[in-house]
Amino acid sequence: MNDCVFCKIINHEIPSHVVYEDDDVLAFLDITQVTPGHTLVIPKKHVTDIFEYDETLAQTIFSRIPKIARGIEKSNPAIQGMNIINNNREMAYQSVFHSHFHLIPRYGKKDDFTMHFGNNMKKYPPEKLAEIAATIQHELED
């Protein structure tokens, strides 16, 4: 992709601070640094989002994430946890349309980062959950 900022980083047209690279994967510091060590992990192959992954690409990317996460954790003894986030499509807050995973080290409750999961249990009794699960299962049948 000619106008993709991450493809330009892969091609060394834009500078970045690389923490890991192999033939298929690039990991570099996010320029926003939500917390120190905030790293992006991307496939070198341009895919827009998770919906474009095949099994091989998924295996390639996901097999590198634990290694990179451990490297980040070992780099700073103050790290107490890590969020791994992947946003897909604009509605889910994807802002760069080259698939990427955020590895965000957590140092404490006062980090400049929050997540909110609404609790809608009362809206979804077991019968409704069974219906949703069956619909998804049907779509997964070969």
TrEMBL record:
The active site is at residue 100. The keyword Hydrolase applies. Transmembrane segments: none annotated. GO terms for biological process: nucleotide metabolic process. InterPro entries: HINT, Histidine_triad_CS, Histidine_triad_HIT, HIT-like, HIT-like_sf. CDD domains: HINT_subgroup (cd01277). Keywords: Hydrolase. Residues 5-115 form the HIT domain. PROSITE patterns: HIT_1 (PS00892), HIT_2 (PS51084). One of its GO terms (molecular function) is hydrolase activity. Pfam families: HIT (PF01230). This is Putative diadenosine polyphosphate hydrolase. A motif (Histidine triad motif) lies at residues 98-102.
